[in-house]
Amino acid sequence: MKISPISGFPEYLPSQRIVEQHFLDVIRETFELHGYPSIETRAVEPVERLLGKGGDADKEIYGIRRLAADEATAAADSELGLHFDLTVPFARYVLENAGHLSFPFRRYQIQKVWRGERPQEGRYREFTQADIDVVDVGELAPHFEAEMPLVIAEVFRKLPIPPMVIQVNNRKIPEGFYRGIGIEDVAGTLRIVDKLDKIGPDKVAEQLVAAGCTPEQAQQCLALAGIRSADLSFVEQVRALGVSHPTLDEGLDALAAVIRAGMDNAPGAMVADLKIARGLDYYTGTVYETQLAGYESWGSFCSGGRYDSLASDGKTTYPGVGISIGVSRLLGLLLSKGLVTASRSTPAAVLVAVNDEESRPTSVGIATALRQRGIPCEVAPKPAKFGKQIRYAERRGIPYVWFPGAAESGGDQVKDIRSGQQDDADASTWQPPAEDLRPQVTAGADPSP
Amino acid sequence: MKISPISGFPEYLPSQRIVEQHFLDVIRETFELHGYPSIETRAVEPVERLLGKGGDADKEIYGIRRLAADEATAAADSELGLHFDLTVPFARYVLENAGHLSFPFRRYQIQKVWRGERPQEGRYREFTQADIDVVDVGELAPHFEAEMPLVIAEVFRKLPIPPMVIQVNNRKIPEGFYRGIGIEDVAGTLRIVDKLDKIGPDKVAEQLVAAGCTPEQAQQCLALAGIRSADLSFVEQVRALGVSHPTLDEGLDALAAVIRAGMDNAPGAMVADLKIARGLDYYTGTVYETQLAGYESWGSFCSGGRYDSLASDGKTTYPGVGISIGVSRLLGLLLSKGLVTASRSTPAAVLVAVNDEESRPTSVGIATALRQRGIPCEVAPKPAKFGKQIRYAERRGIPYVWFPGAAESGGDQVKDIRSGQQDDADASTWQPPAEDLRPQVTAGADPSP
């Protein structure tokens, strides 16, 4: 049976997986420092629930069915599908467990999702997302809208990647502005303006006029969408357009609060960018997108926003705000361009050599002593010539080889195979430099040829 | 739309997920200390590949299909199914990436798998497994068969669970023994003896005779299966049965080597248990099962063995040995019986109180200072009365509440809400006791009522 990759379902080699693990560890650690507990939801939801959300997501859903199902049970099985994001399952989880959760309820969720889309560069059928959300009952305090990008900015600051810029807007700004200049179809106008980066200002103006705007209204929309500032000056720039509407004022105040929190706590991480709209209709306040410096054409790697009705059971409504890191998309770019690399392909920092098969227990004992002090190691598979055992370590990037009984005293020695330096060592006390203990994940191309 | 759990697809509340994370962290950390790199494989494999392995697994496979697929593409989609274990995908991964891997190749893999089985206690349709395997090209050194249970014994020693006993056997022992007493149908005999724990010795003897054994042969089979020792005395007990066969000798030597390594490195963790057979036909040497003390009737929580042909591409054969922890099964038991518990339902060690909404930036600044030194914390959602902010922390199990400016000096104070002790504190130096920094996961029932 022929073996070949399945398009859209990427897999990593061990050294690439070490990069992915480092990214996921930094994400998790940062989310937890900010007090977010983890949840995971099952991979499947009723198809009916999946179809109800996320716009035209119905085109993308994978249904599942038991291959051995008979007619009767097949009907029931066919109602389950793989989740295509983590927001729909989270909303269901909140409703299902509301009685057991304390509100406002924060959570992070790092899981795979599946979409039956046509695979293309940076788009997968199976991929990992890392989400944080906060939901509350009835009302959600606005300071949570400032918290989301601060957490994300900290994640990106800790990762070995080019600068990330979190673009923030508030839906109320275009909504109030459009109403202030007499445009009624806010959603339709937003959808056209959202294409600005793709089709340019001339085409946007054309489409706006085709949709019923006057040329003056179209130019005003473009002027608003052109405003971008890393500080609070966007407020004055909007005011200078001479439009006034209470919803616009609300939006400007809310966005200013988010940007001010960014200036105070994560300088340089955020910009107010008034063209950001997000395609999805359910956002009602702050919205976020994120660009990687130098790779703007790849689109957003981290997006989200506030929704006044994340979930509702008819009696109670749960407003929320959330943001989602596209981990697989980001890694796909970084790995394919050689922008990030792991120092080795195994967690082992030490290979304990084996002098002969009879003395393997001695080598195993040394490895046990090293592990008890947290030093990852493995024992050589064969009592080969030392040169061969060193090459075994080299191929995996293991920095140290331990030679039992190699010292004149009869004690052990350890060799740093990068420098060739070989010293007497005692397994109960020897410690590698901290940077050698775990694989290092750093920016830049793989140094190996 | 009604919301209800889906049978066989368990989900955890945040405090239960903290228990699961602790288990997964211990498993990962131990695997990495032993030099195992991680891989993940895609969730799907061609159905043809899934059907080819694992006995009657075809009954259990979930196929996937795009709901929006038209006739033509539906045909192609229907050839993919969700993996039901991590061994079949690993074998495929080894063949697909052999040119990029260094052999012998170790890996660990912690992922969800799916089986369309009828759900019952301790059986799920979606569950997490944690596997380690070593594969080599052509030949696999026997010491790896001793390594597997040593790694697993270390995992179980570090987990807050009752004692685990790893039962080890070697397929060559019953095979040589059966041949030595004139039984030709080794596989058929093994399958019957494997039911010993379920149906008892009388029924096993009955079935063996029905399958063509003499009553004496049946009694010999039962005598062999009854042998169990934590030391090497099993060898003498087998010898005392007076059977000899070269394959039996090989098996006894191999099992003695594994048990000896266990006695040296993990005393009390392993027993030689000659009734262990494992249902699957592809095991050819050492086999492992694992019982939780006091919960033997739940069956094995960790199983595996050696297979001389894990994978083959026609030219090259890759023998391997592996073992798999049934993480979800184990957690399902422990959580349902209240045998393990987390000290809180959030990673946050500190809740920073908010005096009034205007001073929120002060509280955010304190939280930032604490986080910079690795202390997980969150800022109170509302400037409510302090009693209310304390109750917010209490409900989540957060041990400390930080009061900005509460000291007579105008500095801050921190209260341990369990003892009521409140002291002056500085966010740039204060450190909680190590055991309060992260949620503690311990054996025993949830202390809350």
Automatic annotation (TrEMBL), chains A, B:
Start and end residues of each Aminoacyl-transfer RNA synthetases class-II family profile domain: 19-347
Keywords linked to the UniProt accession: Aminoacyl-tRNA synthetase, ATP-binding, Cytoplasm, Ligase, Nucleotide-binding, Protein biosynthesis
GO cellular component, one term: cytoplasm
Residues at which L-histidine binds: D85, L86, T87, R115, Q129, D133, R278, Y282, Y283
Gene3D superfamilies recorded: Anticodon-binding domain, Bira Bifunctional Protein, Domain 2
Matching Pfam families: HGTP_anticodon, tRNA-synt_His
Name of the protein in its database record: Histidine--tRNA ligase
